[in-house]
Amino acid sequence: MDGVDAHAARGAIRTHLHNLAMISKPDLESIAKTLSARSFPTRFAVELTAQCNLRCSMCHHPAMKRPKGVMPFPLWQRCADQIARAAPATQVWFSFCGEPLLEPELLLTCLAYGRAAGLQQMCLNTNGMLLEERWSRRLLEAGLSQVVIGLDGFSAQAYNRIRVGGDRDVAYANVERLLELRRAMPEGPQVLVQFIAMDENEGELELFREHWLARGAVVKARHKLSWGGRFTTHLCTPDDERIPCPWAVTMMHVFWDGRVPRCPGDTEGDESVGNAWQESLSALWDRLSSYRDLHLERRFSELPERCQSCRDWMVGRAERIDGRVGA
Prior knowledge:
Layout: H1 3-19, H2 28-32, E1 43-46, H3 73-86, E2 91-94, H4 104-117, E3 121-126, H5 133-140, E4 146-150, H6 156-162, H7 168-183, E5 190-197, H8 205-213, E6 218-223, H9 246-250, E7 251-254, E8 259-261, E9 272-275, H10 281-287, H11 289-296, H12 305-309, E10 319-321
Parallel strand pairs: 1-2, 1-7, 2-3, 3-4, 4-5, 5-6
Antiparallel strand pairs: 6-10, 8-9
């Protein structure tokens, strides 16, 4: 990179750093203006497996009590076909309450089917510990739009406090190899590394950012979720500034066994609205419309009890930092 390009890159990064100030005070009303009644979700999360290989400090999974299994392929086929017919541009995320790479062959089979069915945006969220080279190569060629790897710490000390059971050096090496393989390809998914701001990684974002921008990744920085009020966060937006919850208004989730929870914060499925084995996704989404209407009409006091302690509507947008000139 010559001096002009280096100066431009530093300027771009400084601009993004300024934008990251939004992490401490999200512009919630600008988000609220994008929310409206929809005939189908814009994001759909698929729980390929409810098992996980880590016990992360900011995650609900270690305390999760419901049965943990693997999604049968015919259930995914049923979901993929319906999404492709109703809204093929829906972002389909292989994530939620488990690590998808515990079932790598099933994941690749699901991606191949989704691509054949006509799904336009399939995304993967992983902790990176199982990103061996053989899987990385195949995933990069599988038709994914995005791969998001949750790392959250730069130092081994911070990483180990957050990503309990993981190995910082293994995860970093896996992601660096994935990026190297991606650079050698003419096209493929965008690779993002995620940093969730929390007490355990305070002061590490700058080092994290510099490390990954230098290696061609996009850095995704965001607030910590409360997961329906289970975790404390630093967010403290007054109730009179509350907005409709973006998660509730735009997203739909399906557990490995087909159950559809009312919202992402209902990780146990205590308030399941039905099962994707028995009913169409459109019918299940319609069943949730009265709940979404309460959000959109700002009748927050009428929302279910779980919503009263949830702080996830405060989180705001994630900041995406790309240090490439012209990006």
